[in-house]
Automatic annotation (TrEMBL):
Pfam families: Per1. Its main location: membrane. It is found in: Endomembrane system; Golgi apparatus membrane. Keywords: Golgi apparatus, GPI-anchor biosynthesis, Membrane, Signal, Transmembrane, Transmembrane helix. One of its GO terms (cellular component) is Golgi membrane. This is Post-GPI attachment to proteins factor 3. Belongs to the PGAP3 family. The chain crosses the membrane at residues 130-148, 160-180, 192-210, 222-242, 248-270, 277-295. It comes from Rubroshorea leprosula. InterPro entries: Per1-like. Residues 1-22 form the signal peptide.
Length: 341
């Protein structure tokens, strides 16, 4: 049988997580005391949470309409989450009145929820990135099939068409799970976000190598892609089923990003592509945007932290990137048509 004291203990334990994952806010005695009291009474000050009241066997007390709304329940906001969240807000107000700056709780800055969404700005910017990739992919599809000349077999002259289609799908998948993860950070959404990001970055590196070195033959493409695909697959399996090592995952992602930026930068400087200036802007802008992932700062107005602003900077870069992809398709189609005459 579960009594109120065991529930309170569970809330404190869950919010505190452990010494290894603790942040400055987690160790605050006032914060922990607030969470413990909330677990016992279901209230913080005059604010009470009906879904925090349980019977001795753990069944919620009260009619169904007094329980967690469905639109919040699917996000897994529960008594534990509400206690931690509201205690965090109260403690941050006290810190602000004392002239102290924000601190992290459980590895995250104190964000302000909007309709149950954990990080509203990051969700909005992720959705906009998804929309930009969808627009870019569709415009690329229209360009190849309706504006540029086709071969007699109705296939495009552009030799990287299929690769760019896969890239578009992986990009939209990655930004979709980014929006879901920032909406509610739980173990499943975190792993889906990280896995889809690694898959996109790894494939982007393969694509950068194939395009910059003009690898056309299928056998050569397989030889280039196979070892990288094997590493990416192994890494995704590792972080999902063995250990989600944040430091190691960050190193893998940074190496893949830097490698492809260098490849594109060298290729842009080597060839005389008519749209190479777009590639330069994307490479330099992408490199500068990465600094936001390194230079972390608390969210402005409770919404805009460094990670959210990084999501915002990728929106115009995505538009320019797909513009370059379309220009490259036109450039290669024109080259192949002249060569065929």
């Amino acid at each position: 049988m579960i009594d109120r004291y065991s529930i309170a203990f569970y809330l404190v334990l869950s919010c505190a997580v452990g010494v290894l994952d603790a942040s400055a806010g987690d160790a605050d005695p006032r914060y922990r005391a607030c969470v413990a009291l909330c677990g016992k009474t279901g209230c913080i000050g005059e604010r009470c949470f009906p879904h925090c009241k349980f019977s001795s066997d753990g069944v919620p007390i009260g009619p169904w309409y007094m329980q967690e709304p469905l639109y919040l329940k699917w996000k897994q906001w529960d008594c534990q989450s509400d206690c931690c969240y509201n205690c965090m807000l109260d403690r941050e107000k006290e810190r602000e009145s004392d002239g102290d700056g924000p601190v992290k709780y459980h590895g995250k800055w104190p964000f302000t929820r909007v309709y149950g969404i954990q990080e509203p700005a990051s969700v909005a910017f992720s959705a906009l990135n998804l929309a930009m990739h969808f627009h870019g992919w569709i415009s690329f599809l229209v360009l190849l099939n309706y504006k540029l000349p086709l071969k007699q077999n109705k296939k495009a002259y552009h030799e990287y068409t299929c690769l760019w289609h896969i890239y578009g799908l992986l990009s939209m998948n990655s930004w979709f799970w980014s929006a879901v993860f920032h909406s509610r950070d739980v173990d499943l959404t975190e792993k889906l976000d990280y896995s889809s990001a690694v898959a996109l970055l790894g494939y982007s590196l393969i694509l950068a190598i194939l395009r910059s070195f003009n690898v056309k033959h299928e056998a050569a493409r397989v030889m280039v892609a196979a070892p990288l695909l094997a590493f990416i697959t192994t890494h995704i399996l590792y972080i999902n089923f063995y250990q989600l090592d944040y430091g190691w995952n960050m190193k893998v992602c940074v190496v893949m990003v830097v490698a492809q930026l260098l490849i594109w930068a060298i290729w842009a400087g080597w060839i005389h592509h008519p749209s190479r200036w777009k590639l330069w802007v994307v490479v330099i802008g992408g490199g500068l945007a990465m600094l936001l992932e390194i230079y972390d700062f608390p969210p402005y107005l409770g919404f805009f932290d460094a990670h959210a602003i990084w999501h915002a900077t990728t929106i115009p870069l995505t538009n320019l990137w797909w513009s370059f992809i379309r220009d490259d398709a036109e450039f290669q189609t024109s080259y192949l048509l002249k060569k065929a005459k």
